[in-house]
Amino acid sequence: MPASLTREEAAERAALLDVTRYDIDVDLTGLEDGPTWRSVSTVAFECRAPGASTFVDVVATIERAVLNGRALDPSSAAEGRLPLDGLEEHNVLVVETSQSETDRGQGVLRTVDPTDGLVYVWTTFEPDEARRLWACFDQPDLKAVHRFTALAPSAWTVTSNSAPESIEYEGDARRWTFEPTPPLSTYVAVVNAGPFHQARREAGDHDLGLYCRQSLKAFLERDADELFGLTAAGLAWFGERFDLPFPQRRYDQVFVPDLGGAMENWGSVTHTDSVLFRSEPTYRQRSSRANLVLHEMAHMWFGDLVTMRWWDDLWLNEAFASWASVWAMAGATEFTDAWATELLDGKLAGYRQDMGPATHPIRGDVPDVLHAMANFDDITYDKGAAVLHQLSAYLGEDAFVAGLRAYFAEHAWGSTVLGDLMGAFSAASGRDLEAWTTEWLDRAGTDLLVLDGGVLRATAPDGGAPRPHRLRIAGYDADGAVLRPAGETEVEVVGPETPVEAPGGTVFQVNAGDLAFAAVRADEASLETLRARAGELPDALARTLALTTTWDRLVKGELTGDAVVETVRAVVAVDGPAVVEGQLALGLQAAELWTPIERVPAAVARLADAAAALVDRPEHRLPALRMLATAGTRPEHLAAVDEAAGDDVDLAWRVLARRAELGAYDEAAARALKERDPDPDSGASALAALGSQPDRAAKEVVWQALMIDRSIPAGPARRLVAQRFWRPLQGGLLAEFADRYLDVLASLGDAGMLGQLGLVRAMFPYAVLDDRFLARAEEAAQADGVNPTVRTTLLDGVATGRRMLAARNG
């Protein structure tokens, strides 16, 4: 196994070296018909102590290595490190390597499109995977200019961080030479290649590009106007707000197969191609994709332009991008209810993890890179984003943005620590943020804020002083047919008790506008009124906050799953497309996973009835039909989907899977549907339908594909198959697979970061767990030598699972 770079080793190497340039020549011609990637990495670097020794990172077969004209012994490399002795003041290192493990998603993935046999290759290097393809000093603070050349099959297009300077034929291949990049961390370099379909458009001062595999050309062309529009709007928004336009003319986005998410490579973002939706997308899908596009774009400033010095400040990258994407959506796109969507789809996940043993401070302790992977979670992304949203409210948005502008201007192309950012915010706002920083970033857990008459009482879960909060309390009159706004009060919480001037009305919503990251309660009468009459609140954010407060009461044992289902039924009847699909999904989770097993069918049926009532409303028709196809119970539910399906193969797959779950799998219909499905990944939909059956042989087939062969594409396809595999009324059949899930975890170390995260999270058996399984899962998480990513995910699953069992047994 390659060694994991420690924080101390990284600091020592950064103190010794100044890396100035990488010239990386890659040969991709061996990938068209085989697995081998070849590279020659030429590294120019300075040494501050001539005569000293260090090492370069390289996890590949070394075929030749030369330091300052002196040949090095490739066999001296061990654990992914090639020793470098006798350094001079000015050094040039040349290392020639080959890498044939290109099928695992560890830094690189070679995929073959099942529909046409065409080969595509993508790379993604966070946190330290560049070393798998070429020799480099693979740590974020040793930034350097990168210049790539790539020899590729003549039919292939190659993309990298910058624009191609020249493309020349060499026999049956073409050599792509790319412009030098600005100083970049090794983890945001990129080379992608294959016979891509390409679309380009000019927008302001930028040349925008979109790429996808040929089999998805029609879907990219369908969505190109929207994607180009989002990209142009985002670049304009961030450039103006940060007072620093994106400084490179070319900005590409490459949509690739079997990638579980996206990666913020400078100037050439790589996205999962699952966001080129194979059927008509819903508003929620389009909103989620906009969030993804803007999240990765925000990294151009926060992560790429200015980079954390070490992985303990990973949140500086991910939390910022998560906050900035929602901020830009609400301010620069049609998705103006983005903060309500974020509460439902993101912030709620942060709350969930923060109440369990897998929580951690936002600024984590990361002794080595391996532990950094464990922090790619809902605390880093979602809680971190919510805390930045709180900080923006605490300082005022103008001061917050002014601090960001100063930070980018001072640290462009450099590396920073947390104090650099907080110092910029302090200078812009005139507020001392030392205590705020410690309270919010170095403590785990969620404060509870309770409105008790004229006092807001705050408690922290660790027994210490509560954190500072800035929030609003809204009052409503409840006498009429609808809840009528009666006033609003802004409160800055300092200490356990804060006097509150009553906002008017008799019903109170704490944290109106959702500025604070906190569990909130008002008096019991207000809580019950808002739960039962949430649909009468005046806007999507207020209604969603009432629902998520109800959800928080469920997971803490104060309410039943039925109560959440009824609140969902109330809000979806009146809400808009930004939140209805997510609200229905939350209701289905409450019905299937948080309700006593004997009451699950009735709860699911009530939710399906609520969806059926939305089918005739154009803005809700598609998500309503999808919910009916997923949860339909009565004959009329499934008949409505059959009538609507027509050419919508997504709907057809969903209802086929639902019928299979109910014991009526139609193998002939599945074959016919697969033949007419234009999705190159339709095999995943077929497996989802097959695995929905209460049949052991079918489950075995799906298990083999998911957990052994790992042949299901990462991302939504894998999550869909996993969801249809673990059905809540099939507990007896699935118990053995829950045990096998724990047995197979040890083999996931070669699945790459995204592979590990995707498999362990998606396949946690929430639907069928019991006390025995949870005890065994906790034991597995605490075992010596367990991968930190696996440990965190297991502990999080165990904590959530115990809450679910309490609700099911309550």
From TrEMBL:
CDD domains: M1_APN. It comes from the Bacteria. Its cofactor is Zn(2+). Transmembrane segments: none annotated. One of its GO terms (molecular function) is alanyl aminopeptidase activity. Keywords: Aminopeptidase, Hydrolase, Metal-binding, Metalloprotease, Protease, Zinc. Residues 509-799 form the ERAP1-like C-terminal domain. It catalyses: Release of an N-terminal amino acid, Xaa-|-Yaa- from a peptide, amide or arylamide. Xaa is preferably Ala, but may be most amino acids including Pro (slow action). When a terminal hydrophobic residue is followed by a prolyl residue, the two may be released as an intact Xaa-Pro dipeptide. Residues 231-440 form the Peptidase M1 membrane alanine aminopeptidase domain. InterPro entries: Aminopeptidase_N-like_N, Aminopeptidase_N-like_N_sf, ERAP1-like_C_dom, Pept_M1_aminopeptidase, Peptidase_M1, Peptidase_M1_aminopeptidases, Peptidase_M1_dom, Peptidase_M4/M1_CTD_sf. Its EC number is 3.4.11.2. It is an enzyme of class 3 (hydrolase). Residues 119-188 form the Aminopeptidase N-like N-terminal domain. Belongs to the peptidase M1 family. This is Aminopeptidase N. It comes from Amnibacterium endophyticum.
